Every structure is written in structure tokens, then in C-alpha cells.
Amino acid sequence: MRRLFAALLAVSLLVLAQPSRADQTEDALTSLGTPGFDNVREGVEQLATSGHPRAAEIIGALQAGLLFVNADQTLFIKQGDDSFVSASDGKATTDISADDLKQVRVNNGIRNAIEAALGGLRLFSPDAPTRLEAAEAVYKAHDPAALPALDQALAKESNAGVKTRMLEARAAALLSAPDSVEGDRIAAVAVLRARGDIETRGYLASLSDQPPAVAAAITAALTSLDRLAQIWSVAQSVYYGLSLGSVLLLAAAGLAITFGVMGVINMAHGEMVMIGAYVTFVVQQFMREHTPGIYGTSLLFAIPLAFLVTGAVGVAVERCLIRFLYGRPLETLLATWGLSLGLQQAVRSIFGANNRDVDTPRWMSGATEVGGLTLTWNRMYIILFAIIVLASLMAALRYTSLGLRMRAVTQNRRMAAAMGIRTPWIDALTFGLGSGVAGMAGVALSQIDNVSPNLGQGYIIDSFMVVVFGGVGNLWGTTLGALTLGIVNKFLEPIAGAVMAKIVVLVLLILFIQRRPRGMFPLKGRAVES
Amino acid sequence: MKTDRTLWLTLSLTFGIPLVLAVLNQVTEIGAALHVPTYVLALAGKYLCFAMLALAVDLVWGFAGILSLGHAAFFALGGYAMGMYLMRQIGTRGVYGNAMLPDFMVFLGWKELPWYWYGFEWFPFAIFMAVLVPGLLAMGFGWLAFRSRVTGVYLSIITQALTYALLLAFFRNDMGFGGNNGLTDFKDILGFPVQADATRAVLLVVSALFLCLQFLVARFVVDSRFGKMLIAVRDTESRTRFLGYRPESYKLVVWVLSAVMAGIGGALYVPQVGIINPSEFAPANSIEAVIWVAVGGRGTLSGAILGAILVNFGKTWFTGALPEFWLYALGALFIFVTLFLPKGVMGLFAMRRART
């Protein structure tokens, strides 16, 4: 009922306003036709707020230099075919020759007025996105001259989103206007505070000569906006940290398994990651050639394939190399380093030393905004992927019979062997599993890093740090280690710079190892001393 | 110290061959049948410096069981100390002709010399720093690591973290060590032009002399009672501790000694190669130094020297003849030596001797 009443009131107000508006239109057109830059500018401003149906067209013509005037100060618009139409009603005129007409000239002041007027006029466009854009433009200009137009537009506006923007624009204009009252100003500050983006903060900070109460409100608004921005920036750092942490986790999870179960340091682990990335490349090449229809799903095919390929490489490496070196961890380290050199060079020979292009599918590119956070989709998917990989690994270790055997071997190799577990076989499968996980990490990394033969080198040291930090044989430790390192790194970056942050993290880690020589979650029991 | 055939053979070869090369280079004319070109002198000098690094690695790995994957850091620090001295010797002959500041500092808009560059225009100070800085770093690092009983693989990984951190740090321009490009364009050392044949010959002989000295020191250490303790620590650290010894003290002493030896190697390396840049800190370099020792024979000292020279000679030859195969060859060498030649080349000699 009340709404109906309000609507009726608005309609009657509009009707009442009509006659004066007609006068205004006349005046506006007259001043536009009167020689003198000041008259023209006034005409533009009046026309803009008059609500004349052809206002936009007339002002547009003036901007394009197509508005002409005759000796009686009647306005005409020149058409594309050099004929003229009457400016006020758009009717064609035939009895006019170009010789009787004079172009209405503009200067910079008028050009500004034209732009403001056109911006204001678009507020009345029937198209909601255009109105939204116009409101945004008025907001950015925060020109008090737009206030009357804004008020009219607001009265008509039915779209809630556009209305909010218009209210914000009105608030900004009010604060700029020299004559608005204090109460309005304080209300305007509240509106802008609710908007709260960086631009608004800048605008609020730039305001001067406000009454004391308003100035106090502005200061309060700025403080609260700054605090909010700080919270968002912390959240953003946490997000970046989580994203880096999940990458580290993916790279280190396989390493943690092989190190935990077999006590073997696999320096070729980074190369398994690299091979996984190249598998992605090959899969994409193949699908582009043969099945372009489902090219967008290439990553879904690459993940299991990378797991199988690198897993097979891992089993082969274990059978041909590592099993001869059990009980000599330092020699294993050297041999696998040699292997990593060979693998790198092999990939370089096959695919070339340059970076290879791996596409990011459309559903993984772009970003979304949540509050003050920018979340890129590829990073989001990698976090999700890391969670899935971690969960499946944990489930595999916890619920499968292979997992049971692996845990038994981790805890006490000789006892496990005595219970009938074929430890060499478990070792081979463990190594395959660890390598396979590395391969899947490679698929993920191909989305955010350059696919080159050196891809693995960049991650191997970081992965080791994660394993050493988290402690071996415990995936929770690895997870916590990866996330901690990732987040600490990202928090240090804005303070110290990216390289310095990395150095600080490394030094902190070296110091941390002094306190906990076997990581945050060391293995307990007899296995430790062997 | 026991004297045996290996000792005399090593000493005479490591000193004799470079001496002969240097003399031949100096006394014969270019084009003569026995003439040794100068680039051979530079190469040989480089090998000898690498041999010092290998000796240092062998001392800690072969005798104290500490596998350092970051020993090249000490080598590079020694090199930077010498590089700083050589930079200061350039004086006004640089591109910008600034008497106080090296070119890269002028280029970066630095106004005055950072405090840590003071004194490096003085040769004895630079040499002192080439010994002191690696030594101090090793002492700090080792004291922390050995005291809290970080051993085995964990220790290897944090030594790698150490050299990686230094690599990143020296890449930074605002560290004041020339950033990415490092220190280069040296003019002279102690007043003699670095590029001259005679200087190179002398540097080679000096390197050989220092290598022999280091070898003698290392032999002295490992043959002493202290050396026996090191071997005990290497083989069963916990038992040594239960017998009332402090393994960490023994490890720390030999660790610092080894770092100093590597630092001297680095200091001699820089004038002969003519450049020092952060890539010397790369973890891969340290791991390569370990393989030199493994090839020659871990825990033999003479083997470390032999291994360093053999592998680097191979590298020079391969990268010239078959560049794309060098990494395959190096990788295969790592695997082959660890699988089939655990005692290295010296092990082969020992086997032959035992058979006859």
C-alpha cells in the first residue's frame, strides 16, 4: 500500500514538473543558439538536466561539430548527406541552405560540459548496464553539477544495483559540492565507506575544507577502510601462501613417501615432476591433432597418464639402480643425482632446450573476486588438486593392503620382512608411487610454470626443505611443512622482497633443523637410529 | 706422519707436472715442439684449484662421514675475497675510471664504497679474509649443526640449503658483489698483469705448491690421533660418544679446516679464471665436487686430487668434442662409480697391488 502511494506521488511530481521543464528546454535551446561561449555552455548544462527527449542527440551533434544555427537562433543538425534537420523536433527542413547557417563553435570549457552532460544523459538510458556505467562515470567525476540529473535518475531507477551506484555517485558529488549541508555530507561519507574500494579511499583522503564533524567522519571512515584493506591483504597473502604451499606439497609428497619408507633420497625426484609436465605437453599435442573436440579436457587425461608413465619410470629406476644401494643413503643420493642429469639431458635431446607451450584450459583461466580477494582459477584448481592427491594418498596408505605393508616397512623393515612382507617388492612399488605422485605434480606445475628440462631443478631444493622441515614418513608433517613454508614465504615477500624472503626462509630452516634435527614430526622408535 | 710411496708419488706429480708445464711455457718459443700454450696453463691451474676443493670434500666426507653438498660455497667465498682484491686493483682503468668504486657500483649509482669492501685493496688482508670468511661461516654452521646432532642425509640437505641461500643472496645487486655478473675484468695482481704468460706460469706453480701443502696438512691430520678419532666418528658416532669422546668437537675442527682449504682453492681459482660470479654457489657445483672425490676414491686424499683432475679433464674434452653428451657422461659416471667402483680409481690400484 505504501509503495503504491509512493509511486503515485512520484508520478504526480513528474507531471507537476512538466511545464517548468518545457520552459527550461526553450531557454536551453535559446542559449545554445546565442553567440558567445558562456551562453553555449549554459545551454548545454540546461539541456542536459531538462529531460528533453532529443537532448542527447543535440549535445552529441554539438560535440561532433554538426550543430548549426541560423540568424533567428534556431538550431539545425547537419546530417550525413549534408541535409539539415531541425534540432528541437528532428523534422527535415528543405528550405534551408548551408550559406544561411553558422556552426556552433565550442571551446574547452564547453567540451567538458558536453562530456559531463552526455555522462549524465546516459543515466536515463533504457539499458541498465549503460546506466550503471554512467553512474560509475559520474562517481569518478564527482562533479556537483551532476546532482540534479542524478536526483532525477534516482527517482526513476528501479534496478537495485544501478541504484546503489547512483547513490554512491550522488554521495561523492554531494561531498564535492560547496553548498551541501552537514547532515547530508555525513550521510554521504557513510555511503562511501560502505563502498570501500581503493578509489573511494583515495577520494575520501583527498577531500579538504570539510566541516569538523564531517572531517571526523572521514577520518573514521579512512581508518576503518585501512583496517579492512589490511585484513584483505593478509587474507590475500594467506591465499598466495596456500597456493605456493600446495605446489610444494604436490612436489614433496612423493619425496616424503620414498624417503619415509625407504630412507632413500631421490635427487631425480624433480625430474619425475619434469617428466609429468612433458607428458602433459605430449597429451595436449596428441589431442590437438586427433581429438580437437575434447581438447579442453586434456588435463584430465594427462593426470592418470603422467602417474602411470612416471610411476613406471620410478619402478624401473628402483629395480635397476636403487636396490643395489640400500643402506648407503649418501651413495644413493649421488647415483640419483647422476640419473637426474641423464634424464634432463635426455628430455633436452628429445624436446629441445626451449620452453614448451602447455595450454591452460579455458575453465582454468581467469580469476574471481571475493570481497577484496583476487582468486585465480588455476591456483584454486591446484589447491583443490593438492587436497585430492593428499587425501587419496592418505587413503591408500591407510586402507589398502599395499599401504599397510608400506607402513609396516616404514616402522620396522626387518620385522616386516620377518612377518612375510616382501620388502623388495614393497620398495619398488613405493618408489613407483612416489614417482607417480611427482608426475601428477608435474601436470599441475605445467599450468603455472615453464615446461623446460630445468623444471624439476627449481623445485627439488624446496621439496627437500619441506620434507626435512615436516619430518619423514608422515604426510601430515609434509602438509604442515609445505603450507608453513609457503605462507611464511609469502608473508615475508612484501616486507623483504621475493629473493630475500627465500633466503630468510632457508636460513630459518637451517636454524630450525638445529632445534628439531629430524623435523617437526620425527619417526619414533628403533627405526630412527638405523 | 707415515711416509709411503703414494705420498711421494702424489707430491712429486702434483708439483712436478705443473712445474714442467710452466717452465716449458716460459722457456720455449711459440710453435716449438715442446711449447705449452698459455691456455693449457690456465686450464691446469683451474684443475689444481678444483683439486683443492676435492681434497677439502674428501677430508670431511672420507674421514668424518660428513657429506657436504655445499662445499663450493666456501670455495666461492674465498674466490670472492680474492675477486674483491683484484677489483680494487683495477683502480682508474675501469670503464668509468672511478678510483674508489668498481664499475658495477658506479653503474648502479652507488656513491661510496660499502664498509665491507674496506681493506680489500691490501693483498694480505684479502688473503686473510679468503681464509677467515669461509672459516667463520663453517664454524658458525658446523657449531650449530653438529651440536644438535644433525647427521647423514639431513646434514647434506641443509648444506645444500646453505649454498642455495648464498647463491640467491649473491645474485642480488644490492649485496654489493656485482650481482648476476659477479666480479671480472681484472687487470693485475700484486702489480703483475693477470693475463700475462709469466703471471699465469707463476700462479700455476703457486697453486701446485698450495695443493701440495694442503695435501700434506690433510695427510698429517688423518694420520694423527685426531684422524683416528675422525674415522671412529665416521664409522660409529654413537659408540664414540658412549666411550666418552665428543664427536661434535672433532667434526667441527675438521669441518672448519676443510672450509679454509676450499677457500684457499677459491682464492687461487679466481685470478686464473678471470671471473667469479654467483653461479659458483650453485648446488650442482658442490655435488660435482663430491663426484670427483668418489671417482678418485673416497677417503684416500690422493684419490681426491686424481679424481678432480680426471673428471675435469674429461669435462673439458667432452664439452669441446661432444657437448651434448657431457651431461650423459657425467650422469653415467655418478651411477657407474657408486654402483661398481665404490672405492674409486684408487681402489682399482689397491686391488692390482693386492693381486701382485
Structure in a nutshell:
The complex is a heterodimer of chains A (530) and B (356). With 530 residues, chain A is mostly helical.
Describe what this molecule looks like in 3D.
The complex is a heterodimer of chains A (530) and B (356). Chain A has 530 residues and is mainly alpha-helical. Chain A contains 20 helices and 7 strands. In chain A, strands 4-3-2-1-5 form a 5-stranded antiparallel sheet. Chain A has a two-stranded antiparallel sheet with strand order 6-7. Chain A is elongated. Chain B has one domain (5-355): ABC transporter involved in vitamin B12 uptake, BtuC (Orthogonal Bundle). In chain B, 71% of the residues lie in helices and 2% in strands. Chain B has helices at residues 5-27, 38-64, 71-90, 103-107, 123-147, 152-171, 197-223, 225-235, 237-242, 247-273, 283-296, 302-321, 326-340, 344-355; strands spanning 183-184, 188-189, 192-193, 275-276. Chain A binds chain B through residues 259, 263, 265, 267, 321, 324-325, 328-335, 337-346, 348-349, 461, 464-465, 468, 499-500, 502-503, 506-507, 509-511, 513-515, 517-518, 529, and chain B through 67, 69, 141, 144-145, 147-154, 156-158, 160-162, 164-165, 168-169, 171-172, 238, 283, 287, 290-291, 294, 324, 327-328, 330-335, 337-339, 342.
Layout of helices and strands, plus pairs?
The complex is a heterodimer of chains A (530) and B (356).
Chain A: H1 2-33, H2 37-50, H3 55-64, E1 67-69, E2 75-78, E3 84-86, E4 92-93, E5 102-103, H4 108-121, H5 128-141, H6 147-156, H7 160-176, H8 182-195, H9 198-206, H10 212-262, H11 269-290, H12 298-320, H13 329-351, E6 367-370, E7 373-376, H14 377-399, H15 401-411, H16 413-418, H17 423-445, H18 455-470, H19 475-496, H20 498-515
Helix pairs in contact in A: 1-2, 2-4, 3-4, 4-5, 5-7, 6-7, 7-8, 8-10, 10-14, 10-17, 10-18, 10-19, 11-12, 11-13, 11-17, 11-18, 12-17, 14-15, 15-17, 18-19, 19-20
Chain B: H1 5-27, H2 38-64, H3 71-90, H4 103-107, H5 123-147, H6 152-171, E1 183-184, E2 188-189, E3 192-193, H7 197-223, H8 225-235, H9 237-242, H10 247-273, E4 275-276, H11 283-296, H12 302-321, H13 326-340, H14 344-355
Antiparallel strand pairs in B: 1-4, 2-3
Helix pairs in contact in B: 1-2, 1-7, 2-7, 2-10, 2-11, 2-12, 3-5, 3-10, 5-10, 7-8, 7-10, 8-10, 11-12, 11-14
